[in-house]
Design brief:
Oligomer: single chain
Largest sheet: 6 strands, mixed, barrel
Low-confidence stretches: 1-24, 63-73, 479-488
Distance between the termini: 73 Å
Shape: elongated
Strand content: 15-25%
Radius of gyration: 37 Å
Helix content: 40-55%
Structural class: alpha+beta
Number of strands: 22
Length: 885
Amino acid sequence: MRLLNVLSARLRALLRREAVIGDIDEELRLHLEMEAEANVGRGMTPEEARRAALRTFGNFDSVRERAYEVRGGGIVESISQDVRYAARMLVKRAGFTAVAAITLALGVGANTAIFSVVEAVLLRPLPYPNADRIVMVWERNNLSDRPHNVINPRNFLDWQSQAKSFDQMATFIDQRYVLTGAGEPEEVPSQLASANLFSLLGSKAALGRTFNAKDERGGQDVAVLSDGLWRRRFGASNDIIGKTVTLNGTSVTVIGVMPPDFKWFIQENSLTGKPAQIWRMLTITEDMRVRRGRYMTAIGRLAPGATLPQARAEMDTIAARLARQYPDSNAGWGATVTPLREQLSGEIRPALLVLLGAVGCVLLIACVNVANLLLARATERHKEIAIRSAIGAGRRRIVRQLLTESVLLALLGGALGLALSRWCVEALVALSPANVIGADEVGVSLPVLAFTLAVSVLTGVVFGLAPALEASRMNLNETLKESSRGNAGSVRGRWLRNGLIVAEVGITLVLLVVAGLMIRSFLRLQAVDPGFDPSNLLTLRVSLPHAKYSEDPKVVAFFREAATNLGTLPGVKSVSAVSALPFADLGAATDFTVEGRPVPAPGEELVTDVRVVDENYFSTMNIPVIDGRTFTRREAIEDRQVAVVNEEMVRRYFGGRNPIGQRIFVSMKDDPYPTEIIGVVGDARYRTLDGEQRPMVYWTPSQLAYSSMTLILRTSVEPESLAGSARRKILEIDKDQPASDIRTMEGWLGESVARARFGALLLGGFAALALILAAVGIYGVMSNSVAQRQSEIGVRMALGARARDVLLLVIRQGLALVIVGVVLGLLGALAATRVLASLLYGVTATDPATYAAIALLLMAVSWIACYIPARRAARVDPLIAMRYD
């Protein structure tokens, strides 16, 4: 056994010695190459240079043994020498290095910027413990195909008691509260939240506490503040705990302040469209325990051991059981369970993934360009590489040295790209839709740095490997023989360069088609008629506190006085009020019946949206009257039980026949009464421009008083100039009543298409960058080809070829490659654009016009890129070209 151990140790030592000697051989060979290369520079022939270098080294074996004894770093020192030599070569060819580094910086910078957003929005862990177990639970309207509908309080209580897959369930309702005292009155986005919301999220107060069971049982009226409101409104005073604040005229005791990093906002179905700054206790009272009305949002945490499929199956079972037990309210309704991460990123996720793919294409195009530059440079370095091979450098050694140069070049481009990404991120944040990408969330984090480093190294290997392998595959004798008269590059090298051009054109066309479809879709969306005139409209929301305006006549009187006062402002042509502003508010929807028709079976009810408007609404918004008339002033003040409907209501529920004079029962009150249809108006878009048109019933404030209304001013001057005056007019009526969300209707409309604009602009920018890079790449390859074929062109012209013949020859060869790339790109685009179907509006993913226009554009740009070097080739002087040969 001892003998075996000794032999084993001797064998391991021998293997280590052989490995180190192998590394030392590589190092000595590198020094020998460098010494021989210096001798060639002094005028020696390759053979003389190698002999002189060997004389300088002396006995090779002796030097190797001495080096082995010193053990001067092994492979580490070898790589260090590669890096130093690569750095000297990049500095020596500063022009080439600058062009290649800038090209790579564009690709790496764009990728880093988009990945910064993807990491912040899609990959970064949510700031809640075990966030992967938190889900949103919605009611699903099977009739209107709405999977994420707000829920009924009584249904929520049944879910909470029956669902075993959840450890906890909580609920909340978005609210707007008017905060008074300690400064100007201010409308603050808020939430009524069940006591366990914060414990479900695993979030604790930074100061004071959050809600507890005692608060839920109906103790003191308490509130929790956000860190931002606490600092902005109360000067970050620690004495705020236990103090009272006035919300909607009611005194509320502050019990806690949330930490700065607490971010909680579910935008879908939000009644405010903004993150809450105040949370109050939500108690489901007996009056709320009915199965009419849906206005709450639910969140749950999966129980230990429970899975998402199990929770979904259980909620489907519970929803089906409730539909059978309570068909009048629950028939046609199911349940949807959505992971919190998917909920928060659902709408922006597809666009970000498309953008990530787009910048990946840009980086590939940049890599192709640099690879072509390296191939051209490798042709120029054939003599140098041949000498290295002649004095003993193996193919692996040459490939390693060339790859070292490529990776070092890529790291330089990555560093420049990282700096460039800072400006790109700022542009992304500025262009992004509201409440999706925040400037405080996106930045250069450790994952982003790791991504940039990995992309840079991978890029260096990708664009450097093919040129390195091609450069190491030379015929030594032929190369040295041709070195005195130039080298046009190997056939294999030309095929490789041509293949890269074909790939570059194909990738560029795919990206251009995707961008073209997105831009056409956005233009189609912008061209949609909203059904009203959004120009010169100023809007402001006023939410009246129930404690002060508890009676409907007071609410109606306030908004009538507000409209009258605002109408006296210079430049105001008309004023109206609406319960839910188009593109700003969710609005209400309910079922209805038509007098004289059979009552629909449960789950088959007729459904309509409902808006409360005054008599000036249609004229102020420029919504056309199709038939009948709109409301009179008296009808707006007195409950005359009349209604106006839109054209979609007539088409869908009246078979296109005139509904004037017919009566409908709209379930907006506990005891619906018949309402006579007095007019039909044009369809107006209220939620999105690309959504389906919905039936609409318009009521007057006297029939259904809303305490929160939006006032709309039609002006003859710039609407923004009246914002301050309009705010003061509201304060003149009630000094504690602020106006909020003061902005133009065009601003609301623009925000509704922000996501489409975001994707179209970025894709358009990346596509333009790709087109420029492709044109530069084609131009570079054709220029290099012309330079390498000087002698051939000179011979052709000496034998009688005309300048026009040479011009067409070069252009034809370049365009042949482009045509192949276009064909392959069209096939790739047909496959790639399938994922765009859900993001497009008014245009198909296979739109022939877009494909044809993009193909022609790319062909035109490529023709220009080929024409410039072709013209230069046509001007070659045969005598000079043949003398060069």
